[in-house]
Amino acid sequence: MHGKPKKHILVCVQRRPQDHPRGCGCADRGGAAVYQAFLDEFAKLELWDKGFLLTDTGCMGPCDQGPTVVVWPEGVMYLGVKPEDARVIVDEHLMFDQPVERLLAPKEIWG
Ligand code: FES
After folding, report:
1. Is the dihedral of CA 17, 23, 29, 35 positive or negative?
2. Domain CATH code at residue 89
3. Per the count of CB atoms within 10 A, which of 34, 47, 64, 109 is most buried?
4. How many Å lie between the centroid of ligand 1 and the Cα of residue 43?
5. 34 C-beta closer than 6 A to ligand 1
6. What's the pTM value of the predicted model, to 2 decimals?
7. Per-residue pLDDT of the chain (111 residues; tens, 9 = 90+)
8. Could you tell me if the CB of 68 is within 6 A of ligand 1?
9. Is residue 85 part of a domain?
């Protein structure tokens, strides 16, 4: 892919020690499996060649409700994402610009 992406998907895979004051990170809540599920979708649908970008990343804030996924440029945050949700986010949000309502972060968190 060259140039700015159409959409950039960030998936939190932050790992922290169990006794960390902010609790365990998204890695312990399944973030790596979510990232892998997005990788599988990207490979299957050749999304890199179609202008999409996927990055595994560190903490984006609401750790206790992760795994956290953010889609830019619109800045939509999803919480509690499961691996099977990756396909839904790709099918509905990336392909048709329809954010997946049931996974959206509340405005108090990401308003
Ligand atoms: S550790 Fe994933 S949002 Fe904080």
Report:
1. negative
2. 3.40.30.10
3. 34
4. 25
5. no
6. 0.95
7. 578 999 999 999 999 888 888 877 899 999 999 999 999 999 999 999 999 999 999 999 999 999 999 999 999 999 999 999 999 999 999 999 999 999 999 999 998
8. yes
9. yes
